[in-house]
Design brief:
mainly alpha, single chain
């Protein structure tokens, strides 16, 4: 059968859709504080229950999407073991990120979390012998300076909050490297995401039962926030990421991921009235700039 070659116009439209999907993915992930902070502030539900509902609902939604698309969810024992371990790292990231929201501004927390691409690159250079680059180490130093500026407000700083969100940088970096180096990344993204979220849902069900218990949803506002959190900031974010990578590649998608902390900061400033001055703006710029440099330099070496 003769292969169909896309016309320049079709290819341009494909890339335009890919960029749109990438922007949607990063923006929807950056909206996590918009749906979680109100629940925490109202005191209607604790963190473990929020995470259980987020992961549980998202697992059901991803499973339904996969079933409608005829995806196979069959895996072997070795794949299952890897998915459980990776799911725990992903779940730990979500747990500590949520906890950090109660200690430091949500925009600051999400921005610090966005240091993970720098750590991923350092792990690959140190343990997997990727070529070293002065750009990478320089960007790391700049990003650390950005974190310092972002948190230097002249008032009291919650070092516990900073330490908590820095843990998410470590766990998410291990998750990304694990997906890349374990062979799991070759799976179809829908079943992969389904099992990652399922492992997280089971982990949070256990955690909730051992602490606060799985709390019932007692009002419509909480139910709405939980449903939108699962649908928008988990399902849509993950699926549009896959569609974006397919159309424009990982480099452009990663660069456009800088929209994630920007959206989180804007939500914190305009929705939750969190403080934000020139130091925060400079710190945010340094962090985003350093991450973009790391991504571009890493991709350049691979070509």
């Amino acid at each position: 059968m003769k292969k169909t070659v896309a016309t320049p116009r079709q290819e341009s439209a494909r890339k335009t859709r890919g960029i749109a999907y990438a922007l949607i993915s990063s923006a929807t992930f950056g909206l996590i504080p918009l749906f979680t902070v109100p629940i925490l502030s109202a005191g209607t539900m604790s963190g473990p229950s929020i995470l259980f509902y987020r992961f549980g609902l998202a697992t059901i939604l991803i499973g339904l999407i996969g079933a409608m698309r005829g995806k196979s969810f069959r895996i072997n024992f070795r794949q299952g073991t890897k998915l459980v371990v990776l799911g725990w790292f992903y779940a730990a990231t979500s747990m500590w990120l949520l906890e950090s929201y109660s200690m430091i501004p949500s925009g600051v927390a999400t921005t610090i979390h966005f240091l993970y691409p720098v750590l991923v690159t350092l792990i690959m250079v140190t343990f997997y012998h990727e070529p070293k680059s002065i750009w990478i180490f320089g960007a790391s130093a700049v990003s650390i300076a950005g974190v310092a500026l972002l948190n230097w407000t002249g008032g009291a700083v919650s070092y516990e909050g900073i330490a908590t969100v820095l843990l998410t940088v470590v766990t998410y970096s291990i998750y990304i490297v694990g997906v890349n180096k374990s062979g799991i990344g070759r799976m179809d993204p829908i079943p992969l995401t389904f099992y990652i979220l399922l492992a997280g849902a089971l982990m949070f069900a256990t955690h909730a039962e051992m602490t606060t218990g799985i709390e019932l949803v007692r009002d419509g506002r909480t139910a709405f926030n939980l449903l939108v959190l699962a649908l928008v900031s988990t399902v849509i974010s993950d699926l549009t990421l896959v569609m974006a990578v397919e159309r424009v590649g990982s480099t452009i998608v990663s660069v456009l991921g800088s929209l994630e902390p920007l959206v989180a900061v804007l939500v914190g400033v305009f929705w939750f009235s969190e403080p934000f001055g020139w130091k925060g703006a400079l710190g945010l710029s340094l962090i985003i700039g350093s991450v973009v440099v790391v991504i571009l330099q890493t991709e350049k070496r691979r070509k």
